Amino acid sequence: MNPQRGPERLIRLGQWVVTLLFAYFLIQVGASLIADLPLLSRQPQPDDFLDRAVIERLQQEIRPTEARMERIRSQLSAVQAELQAADQSYARARTSFENWRAARSTTEQADQNPAVLQRAAELDRQLKRQDDIQERLGSLQQQEAGFRLAIQPQQEQISELRTQADQRYQRARQWAELRAFLIRLLFVLPVLALALWQFRLYRTSDQWPFVWGFLLFALFAFFFELVPYLPSSFGSYIRYGIGALLTYLGGRALIQALRSYAARKQAELEASQEERRLQIRYEQAMQALGRHQCPSCERALPKLAPEVLSYCSYCGLNLAMECPRCKLRHTTFFPYCPSCGLEAEQAAAVATGNAGTPPLDLPTP
Ligand SMILES: [Zn+2]
Ligand SMILES: [Zn+2]
Prior knowledge:
By secondary structure, the chain is mainly α. It has helices at 6-36, 38-41, 52-107, 114-202, 208-226, 236-270, 273-279, 282-290, 344-355, and strands spanning 320-322, 329-331. It has two domains: 1-234, no CATH class; 273-361, no CATH class. Helix 3 packs antiparallel against helix 4.
């Protein structure tokens, strides 16, 4: 209940360092332990669910046809290139012929000229060649379509097998995810329960650095080893459901804290001035008064000069007194009078013994 002395502050700092180190090492141990659990390390693979023998057999069946199709495809692309070249060549020859004939007709007007006939025949030959190429192209395309039709049943079978395998794989992955979460839950939940129970009972004992360190470890395990592994493939309702549950529990804890705070304040108000003064720690009282707050009801004090301000205007807590021995006016929370050294308890006994009334009627000098 005394203000902290220098070495005490250092020791307290050291205790916090112990707390953090303890939590850090526990977190490392916990993380390595979970990482080494054999059930968590093996994830299902898509290939595990494929009937590879059947697929292999089907692929063997269609392989020769596929090879032939491949050859036809390369022929097709060669013929297509040939056709394109022929098209361009014909278009060029035709333009050149038209130009030549136009120039000739203005000078000689002789369409039955053998030179004209020769060039027209050349154009016809080119057209004929285009037709031939077109025909070869058609026949290749027909062959390819025939092969494609021939291997269609096997290909459909293969893709059906793959779809089924994928469905089985997805189901297995969901279960693996759920199982991993449950295993983590089995590990984290007891740790968290133990930490909270210890915290409730022993957080103010002299073992507090370990209690706090263990709690930090449990919270870390909960938020980093459990929450990120909430199963997601079962739909978001599990994730959000657990979120809603945690928010509810947190909210209830807050309401509980508010209620117990109100009850504590009520009990404080019902106690006598002397009991109230003793319940408030000296340090706490000095901090509250420094913030110009009542140390008991924690409301703002009226802005009055320190010589006048003797009571909290909300809860009536006695804030200042006059030393019965030396008459120095000082705060009621000093354990000893700063001027004459009278102990606070003696001073209170004198005050109540003299007056026999509440300290509102302090004895006047
Ligand atoms: Zn007050
Ligand atoms: Zn005094």
